[in-house]
Specification:
By secondary structure, this protein is an all-alpha fold. The protein has one domain (2-186). The protein is 66% helix and 0% strand. The chain has helices at 2-11, 19-29, 34-47, 51-63, 72-77, 81-97, 109-118, 124-144, 150-170, 180-186. Helix 1 crosses helix 9. The N and C termini lie far apart (44 Å).
Amino acid sequence: MKEVLETLALAYQYPSPGSTNALWERVKALPSSPSKSLLERFLQATSGLRLAEREELHTRTLDLNPLTAPNVGYAVYGEDYRRGRFMAELNAEYARLGVDSKGEIPDHLIPVLRYLAKAEEPLPELLGLLGPALQQIAHTLRTLEPKNPYLFLLEATQGAVRPYAKLAADAPTKSLQLPTAVSSLASQLPFWKGGHK
């Protein structure tokens, strides 16, 4: 499981020369699983692109649109104060376990996946938010760009973190209102059911 989470974190990084080959090597070494198959499909869809095209795809998908950015807290809380508190708790956990955020904000999937690979008892709030956040991000991206290769990566991530859903269900945690911020933002989009025309 740890290797899959670390490989997924690598896949979310900004493309660089040689990054696709390095990712292929990591994926080949993984044991057979649905997440591995989806990672292979992601790589098959992006390997034929030039570096500039992969950079543009990454930026367009994961950086420019806040509704598809891989930020767990934002997908659920938006800019609500709860996101700030959540990120502060993640930062403290990262410092405790020596998780390198690779320059990303704390609720980005890169440090979140690296944290899950190291943590024996992950933060209960993270476990409760992760599934709904990934579902929201994937749903939005599928609506905006149904053929975007990053959908394979998001599906691989959903599969890899699915075991944490049981931990979330078993963990004592305060009631979370999900996904209030994103649903209010999404309702303003014309393609969303109930959105403005």
